[in-house]
Structures are given as structure tokens and as C-alpha cells.
Design a protein that fits this description.
498 residues, Nucleotidyltransferase, domain 5, alpha/beta
């Protein structure tokens, strides 16, 4: 059995149950620590959470302080135990902080270090940045979902709510942005060529690849052409001859741009062939060159078709980021927000502020996942039997299927209402639940304020992990709020008695 947290206390170490946390503070850190302290000091909850955490195998710290590569479990210095990973991961999302701030807090924040299990004489235990990055990435969405269920059940026990009674939910979606710049054909092509030149220069240091000695000049030349296109504007003149002249100038500039890109792309191809055939470099090590070459080919083709040939590029063929290819172009019709770059995320919130379930909606819309959200929530909470939605989740199939799954369904219909729809939607219970549905926006705003506005992690797996950790952090914070409120009432009662 793996040790989630060492039970052996050291000289100067404070037991987590004895840590005094300021319940009068309005900061986020004490509330999160209160939630974590409740997990640790409640034996059934701690046993359930620790059993799940045993599945996580932490990385060890490398012996070489400059090394950032995880080493074998039998080598290196002790790294982080699972409890520390849970504490710091929760804190990262609860504060919406980056790794640098988490490192500073882990090394300097006195109360946090006590929660991590370090005492007065543990001054030599400092967390390195790469250690935090390696270990905080070990949690999977599945593990965090299971911990999430245990945390919510503990919250219900604190609120003295029978988990077998009717649980009501509110379901809504929002866009979790990816960390990308606004995409255009020309800047995506510039990104591809820039990365290809950088990687070829990297390989040329060890293998003396020809044609890359003047790489800085080449990149500057390509960027100058890119800037030239950026400054061009379509003519607004009523004179057709002036319009045609301007269009010809724009086409000429784009043609020069893609010709120059193709010139560097051909040079990259020759370098790749040299690395493969002469130096016998495995293809797996040249995967970045291959991937970004494909990106460059696609962008050259699309610029040529759109600008020079006047073709409209189908939306399905477009890529909105080379570094985060899972990014989607989402237009929800919100006032002042014409477009958002990211992925939709759906949450199921109960009436007590806990997030019962969430889903990352890759290329999915609200009406396609309504039934799946209910099924997944009922899997963990069988007494979940009432839910409200907005019009975006409506479809005839959803209306019928949700009535079979739930006792109370609040799903407004799109468009004109029939007589039967009016009877259903004008019912007093339906109207009241529809008014209360807007409270889910508060949960969405709380998630966005605490780190879920933009995902800084890379790749779709990192995106899903970041979203799941944000939901877990929010629920632990909500658990801490319940503990804090109870402690404040006790303090107030003691003051009045005194």
C-alpha cells in the first residue's frame, strides 16, 4: 500500500487537526485550507479520499538540481506525497494562480506549510518549480471526479441533508477559453514558419545543417512581409478602378508571402531528409518538424484559395491555433462578445452551490448532452430527480427522454408555444424553478474568477485535467465555506456569552 501522507510526525511538526486557521479572514486561502482540513480530520472521508489518492504515483525529485526530468521511483530525493499534490493542486485552481505563485506559497506561507506536513525545523524542504509541474499534472479527470463525489457527500453531511432525499440541479454551459491569440491565415502561417526555422536551427547546432546560418535574417525578412500584409486595407472608394488596383496589390502581397513561406518550407524539407538519411535520426524525434510542415502547407493552400482565387474556406477545414489545435471558434450571440476561442464546458450545480458533474464539450452543443449530463449525475447521486435548463438544451427528444428520467423537468421550449406548452410553462412550479435557474450563473462566475476563465495548460488532456481540478477546488472551497460559517457562529455565540 502506498503512503498518501506519512503518519510519522517529526519534531516541530503540527498535526493538521491542530492547525489554527483564521475564520475571520476574507481571503480565499483560509477557506480552501478549512475544506482540506475537514477532509483530513473526518476519518471516513479521509479514508475514502486517501484510497483514491493511492492510485497516483508521485514523481521523485532528480538528484541534479538542474534536471527537470522525472526519474525512477528508486532514485533521486523524496518528491511530493499525494496529500501535498492535492493541497497544492486545489490551491492553484482555487486562487487562479500560476506555478510560480504556488511555489512561493508552498515555500513561504506558514499555515500552508503546516497543512503540507512541514514543521518548524523543515526549513530545508523547498519545492522546485519543475517538481510542482510534474506532480500536479498526475491527477486525471476520473480520479478528481471520484474525490469530488466524496467531498459533496461530506458537504451534505455538514448541512444535515439526507443524500437520499430529492436533489435538485441547474444545468448550463459556458466557454472555457484556451490561451491563444486571435487567429488569421497569415499569422498562423507565420507561427508555423517561425517554429520550423527555430527547430532547424536547434538541429543544425549538432549536425551542421546547411542553409540556416542566416536564420535571424530569414525570419526578419518573413516577418517584414507579414507586417506589410497586416497594414493593407481594402479600398472603400466608389471608383472601381481604384478598388481593382487595391485588390491586385493585396493579392500581390499575399502571393509574395506564400512564395517566401514555400521557399523556407522547401528548405526545411531538405533538412529533414538530411537528418533522416544521412544522420539516421528517428522520425519520432522529428515529429514537430513534420507536424508544423503540414500546418504550413495547409495555411499556404488556404491563403491562396481565399485571397487569390476568391474561394470561401469551409469552417470544418479551419484550424484556430497551431499550439492548441483543440480550440474552437464559438459564437454564442452574447452582447459585446461576438466570438470566443476555447471549448464549451457544461456544469450541473445543486441548490447548495456544489458542482455535481461537469463535461468538456468537444464539438458538442447543449441540446446533444442534456440527457448525458442527467445520466452521469444520477450515476453518482441516485436521488437526483429534478433539474432546470435553459432554451439551448431544448429538443423534442430531450423533452420526452428527460420526463422519463426526472420527476421535475424545467426545459423551456424554443420558438412559439403551443397550447400544451403554455399550460406546462405557465405552471407556478415551472415559473418558480425557471426564475431560480439563473442562480447557476453565480456558480459559473465563481469558477471563472477562480481560474476557469482561461486554461493555461497545453493539449486537450491538460485542458480536461485543468477543468476537473477547477471543479474539485470549487467544491472543496464550498466545503470550507460551510466549516467557516459554522466556526463564525460559534465565535459569535462565545462573544455573546462572554
Amino acid at each position: 500500500m502506498r503512503t498518501v501522507k506519512s503518519p510519522q510526525m517529526q519534531i516541530g511538526q503540527t498535526d493538521i487537526a491542530d492547525i489554527i486557521i483564521d475564520v475571520t479572514s476574507r481571503d480565499d486561502i483560509p477557506v480552501i485550507l478549512l475544506g482540506l482540513q475537514h477532509i483530513y480530520t473526518t476519518p471516513p472521508l479521509r479514508k475514502a479520499v486517501f484510497k483514491i489518492l493511492e492510485e497516483v504515483i508521485p514523481h521523485k525529485e532528480a538528484n541534479d538540481s538542474a534536471s527537470s526530468v522525472a526519474v525512477d521511483a528508486n532514485k533521486g530525493r523524496p518528491g511530493m506525497d499525494q496529500w501535498c499534490i492535492l493541497v497544492l493542486g486545489t490551491l492553484r485552481l482555487g486562487l487562479g494562480a500560476d506555478y510560480d505563485r504556488i511555489q512561493e506559497l508552498a515555500n513561504q506561507h506558514r499555515t500552508l506549510r503546516m497543512m503540507l506536513g512541514h514543521g518548524l525545523f523543515s526549513t530545508d524542504k523547498d519545492y522546485r518549480l519543475q517538481t510542482l509541474k510534474d506532480n500536479l499534472a498526475l491527477f486525471t479527470p476520473e480520479i478528481m471526479t471520484r474525490i469530488n463525489v466524496e467531498v459533496i457527500r461530506a458537504g451534505y453531511q455538514l448541512l444535515d441533508i439526507d443524500i437520499h432525499h430529492l436533489i435538485r440541479g441547474r444545468c448550463d454551459s459556458f466557454v472555457l477559453k484556451t490561451d491563444v491569440h486571435f487567429p488569421t491565415d497569415i499569422n498562423l502561417l507565420y507561427d508555423a514558419i517561425r517554429v520550423l526555422i527555430r527547430d532547424c536551427v536547434y538541429w543544425s547546432k549538432d549536425y551542421a545543417l546547411p542553409e540556416w546560418r542566416q536564420h535571424q535574417c530569414n525570419l526578419g525578412r518573413f516577418k517584414a512581409q507579414y507586417r506589410k500584409i497586416q497594414k493593407l486595407r481594402h479600398s472603400t472608394s466608389k471608383d472601381e478602378s481604384k478598388k481593382r488596383a487595391k485588390e491586385a496589390k493585396i493579392c500581390e502581397a499575399h502571393q509574395a508571402y506564400i512564395d517566401l513561406a514555400q521557399f523556407y518550407l522547401n528548405r526545411v524539407g531538405r533538412s529533414v531528409e538530411l537528418l533522416k538519411n544521412t544522420y539516421k535520426i528517428p522520425e519520432v524525434l522529428l515529429s514537430d518538424l513534420s507536424i508544423f510542415s503540414q500546418h504550413a502547407d495547409r495555411q499556404i493552400d488556404q491563403i491562396k484559395r481565399r485571397v487569390i482565387e476568391g474561394e470561401k474556406i469551409p469552417h470544418a477545414e479551419k484550424v484556430f491555433s497551431l499550439f492548441q489545435p483543440h480550440t474552437e471558434w464559438i459564437s454564442k450571440g452574447k452582447a459585446g462578445v461576438p466570438v470566443e476561442l476555447g471549448i464549451r464546458m457544461c456544469i450541473m450545480e445543486d441548490t447548495h452551490g456544489f458542482i455535481l458533474h461537469h463535461r468538456v464539450m468537444q464539438k458538442e452543443t447543449d441540446d446533444k448532452i442534456a440527457l448525458e449530463m442527467v445520466n452521469a449525475t444520477q450515476l453518482n447521486f441516485p436521488s437526483f430527480n429534478a433539474c432546470s435548463f435553459d432554451k439551448g438544451f431544448h429538443s423534442v427528444e430531450n423533452q420526452q427522454q428527460l420526463k422519463e428520467k426526472l420527476k421535475h423537468v424545467v426545459l423551456p421550449k424554443k420558438g412559439r408555444l403551443s397550447s400544451a406548452d403554455k399550460i406546462r410553462e405557465y405552471d407556478e412550479e415551472f415559473v418558480q424553478a425557471k426564475k431560480q435557474h439563473s442562480a447557476v450563473e453565480s456558480a459559473i462566475n465563481a469558477l471563472q474568477v477562480h481560474g476557469l476563465n482561461k486554461c493555461p495548460d497545453h493539449g486537450i488532456e491538460g485542458f480536461k485535467r485543468y477543468a476537473a481540478l477547477a471543479v474539485l477546488s470549487r467544491n472543496i472551497q464550498q466545503l470550507g465555506c460551510i466549516v467557516r460559517d459554522r466556526e463564525r457562529k460559534l465565535l459569535e455565540a462565545k462573544k455573546q456569552a462572554a
